[in-house]
Structure formats: C-alpha cells, structure tokens
Design goal:
By secondary structure, the protein is an alpha+beta fold. The chain is built from ten helices and eleven strands. The protein is 56% helix and 19% strand. The strands form four sheets. Strands 6, 9, 10 and 11 form a four-stranded antiparallel sheet that branches. The protein has a three-stranded antiparallel sheet with strand order 3-2-5, with no helix packed on it. Helix 8 packs across helix 9. The protein starts with a helix and ends with a helix.
C-alpha cells in the first residue's frame, strides 16, 4: 500500500506545473458557466407563475415555461401556485387520508366552539378552500397570508352562526351558512389585499358540546315524537275529511236529485189534474162515471170480502158465493 502511494506521489512530481494549471482553469471556468446558467435561466411549472424581484423590489410576473433573468444577487424568482386549490381545516385536522384527529384537543375546541343567535352553544367543523388570485398581493401585501385566512374565516363563521338559531345551524341552513361565510371572507380578504380567492366554505359536522349532548338528544327526540304525532294526525285528517266531504257531496247530490224528482212529479200530477179537469168540464157525467169505474177496478181486486148494499132492496140481498169459502163448502157437501 505504501508502495502505491509513493508511486503516485512520484508520478505527480514528474508532471510539469504548467500542465496542471490548464485543467484547473478549465474546471473553474466550467463551474462559473454552470453557476451563471443556473442563476439566469429558470422554469415555471404549469400550475404556477414566477414573480421576479430585482434587488428585492417587484419587477414582473412570468407565465409557465422557460425564462431568463439576471444572475443571482440581482434578480430572484418566487414561484407561486395559482391554479392549485389549497384548504384550511377548522375544528379538526387530517392526520392521514380518511383519518381525523379528535376534537378533544383544546386548540381545536377553541376554534370550533361558537354561540348561536338563540344563545345556544355548538361545535362546528368546516373547511375553507382557496387559491391565489394575485401573486403580487399574495407575496407583498400581507405578512402571513395563511394565518390571516384562518383568523378571517373564524370571524366570518362566528358572525354567520351568531345570526341563526341552533336548529337552523344543525339542520337545514348549512349550505346557506357556508355560502354567506364565503362572501364575508372574500370581502374582508379583498379589503386586506391578500390576493386570495375563496373557492368554497363547507360545514362538515355541527354538534352540541359533549357536556350537553344527552339533554340535547332528549329535546330532539321529543321534537321528533311531536313531528311524528303531527304527521299521523295530518294523515288521519287527510283520510277522514275528504271522505266526509265526499259523503256530504253525495248526500247533497241525492237530495237535489230527489227534490228535482218530486218537483217534476208534482208538476206532472198538476198537469194531469188540469187536463182531467178540462175533460171533466166538457162532460161531467161521463167523466165522473169513467173515474168511478177506473177507481173501482183498482180497488175491488184488492178487497177479499165484498158487501153490496142496495137501498131499494127490502129483504136480504141474495149473494152468489164465488169466493174460496163457497168452493170449500161445496166440496164438503159432496
């Protein structure tokens, strides 16, 4: 091993010094060229823009692609993603895809605990999605944009939730709350010139605090029972009332039909009586006899026993027994 070391040193001593300077100079020159090129050319990805500063002052904004700038120390580039959707979580943190941290942590509870308009307390989790709209404002107008977004989001959400009742926050007004909070956030961030555009604000979970959950659940159960009883009563109402209304309409229709029938019958009887009276007036004796005969032909067949009395007869009126009793007596005589 020592033999090889001595051989290398002897070999280097034999090389002329003027031949060693040339590779060193070439290496230094190549290093300077590499540093120059790396500090003058830069590329910007498709989702970002490049903000160029000259001596620390904003100079220009470059679009995606390969660009040239002055060497390091004169101009510097900061790449800002403008199409990427970023998000901030409130009341929880995503530890891994599909895994959330618990709300028991004090810091998370403080940012999600808020008061409603009817003086009830709720714990709300929500997400704010945003993107960079103006890279220059994003970099130079506000010192810490992320913290500003978080503070503004908490203030806007507390204001919106504070204008509503606990029932609305827990049930049907979640979408409206998110939309209104997004508008308020955008208004404040534009006033601060943060260069941020709010994409959406989504309420995740809204629940009462753990200390009052049993009482709150009991109230909700009572409300659900009340709604169920009301729905059942309305169901019976919608079943019975239309049936009763139909029966009443049917009875009215039948009564009207009966009235029309009676009126028509009365009109017909009156007209028949008038016609009969007119015929009677023309021939009273004939009409009287005809009426008598017609009446007797209707009455006599319905009478079982008939007694005929003649005022001119002095004795007992002879009667030819043609009824059933006569037939039966005749049979017994045989």
């Amino acid at each position: 091993m020592d033999f090889e070391k001595d051989s290398i040193e002897d070999y280097l001593r034999k090389i002329p010094r003027r031949d060693m300077k040339k590779p060193i100079i070439l290496g230094v020159a190549a290093l300077i060229v590499i540093i120059f090129l790396s500090s003058t050319f830069f590329s910007v990805s498709a989702e970002s823009v490049g903000v160029v500063q000259r001596f620390g002052k904003y100079d220009r904004t470059t679009q995606p692609g390969l660009h040239f700038k002055l060497p390091a120390g004169i101009e510097s580039v900061t790449k800002v993603p403008v199409t990427r959707i970023m998000s901030q979580e409130f009341g929880f943190r995503t530890a891994a895809p599909g895994i959330r941290t618990t709300r028991s942590q004090q810091a998370l509870l403080q940012e999600s605990l808020m008061l409603t308009g009817d003086l009830n307390v709720v714990v709300a989790d929500w997400i704010v999605q945003y993107k960079v709209r103006d890279p220059r404002e994003f970099l130079f107008k506000v010192r810490n944009v992320v913290e500003t977004i978080r503070d503004v989001s908490e203030a806007a959400m507390r204001q919106v939730v504070g204008d509503r009742s606990v029932d609305g926050v827990l049930t049907v007004e979640r979408m409206q709350i998110g939309e209104e909070a997004a508008l308020k956030m955008q208004e404040i961030l534009d006033k601060y010139e943060t260069g941020i555009q709010i994409v959406t604000v989504k309420l995740q979970d809204v629940n009462p605090p753990d200390q009052v959950k049993p009482a709150f659940n009991a109230v909700n159960e009572a409300k659900q029972e009340k709604e169920q009883m009301i729905n059942e009563a309305m169901k019976d109402y919608n079943t019975i009332i239309p049936k009763a209304a139909g029966d009443a309409e049917r009875m009215i229709t039948e009564a009207e039909g009966y009235a029309i029938d009676r009126v028509n019958r009365a009109d017909g009887d009156a007209a028949r009586f008038v016609d009969l009276w007119k015929q009677y007036a023309k021939a009273k004796d004939v009409t009287r006899r005809r009426l008598y005969m017609e009446t007797m032909s209707d009455v006599l067949p319905k009478v079982k026993k008939k007694y005929i009395v003649d005022e001119n007869e002095q004795g007992i009126l002879r009667l030819l027994p043609l009824g059933e009793s006569a037939i039966s007596s005749k049979g017994g005589a045989k």
